[in-house]
Design goal:
By secondary structure, the protein is an all-alpha fold. It is built from 7 helices and no strands. The chain folds into 2 domains: 80 residues, Rna Polymerase Sigma Factor, Chain: A; 51 residues.
């Protein structure tokens, strides 16, 4: 058998649930959040120790306060998530930049160890120059330019020490 308190609560619940839900839905624009907070409001109402003279006003005020706290906490949560994502992106871009710089330094060291003729031919070839242009710039006969490039690539890869990165670098 239901107690007097339970019967009163059931009447108030049936009367005010739609009102409180609409108020919360209007504030939160989310069906699931409005439902969750409406339930929370009625649990607080049921567990309240003192007799509440105006239950509609009490429910409305508690609903508004809980909704505002929810909105604040969601905003804070979103700010924290955005901050974490921003920090992660900064770290990743710094790490990528460091890796690129390190690889670039390795390429420069290997190029510096090449004989000048190989280095010049490779740099010109990978800058888009034709064999004719390379021949004109270096004074190497056109028939020998291809051989110089091939030898330069081979020597570069020996110095660079990473055959698997051959196509990535050159």
């Amino acid at each position: 058998m239901k107690s007097k308190k339970d019967k009163e609560f059931e009447l108030i619940y049936r009367q005010y649930y739609p009102v409180v839900y609409r108020q919360l839905y209007y504030l939160l624009a989310s069906n699931s959040s409005a439902e969750d907070i409406t339930q929370e409001v009625f649990i607080k109402f049921y567990n309240s120790k003192s007799g509440i003279e105006h239950p509609g006003a009490w429910l409305s005020k508690v609903a508004a306060n809980i909704a505002l706290n929810y909105i604040r906490s969601e905003g804070s949560r979103q700010q924290r998530e955005d901050s974490i994502i921003e920090d992660f992106e900064t770290i990743m871009s710094a790490e990528e930049e460091a890796c690129k710089n390190e690889q670039l330094q390795e390429v420069r060291r290997a190029l510096a160890k090449l004989p000048a003729s190989y280095r010049t031919c490779l740099l010109l070839k990978f800058s888009g120059y034709s064999y004719d242009d390379i021949s004109n710039v270096t004074g190497i006969p056109k028939g020998n330019v291809g051989q110089m490039i091939l030898r330069g690539k081979k020597k570069f890869m020996e110095l660079y020490g990473k055959e698997e990165n051959y196509y990535e670098v050159l």
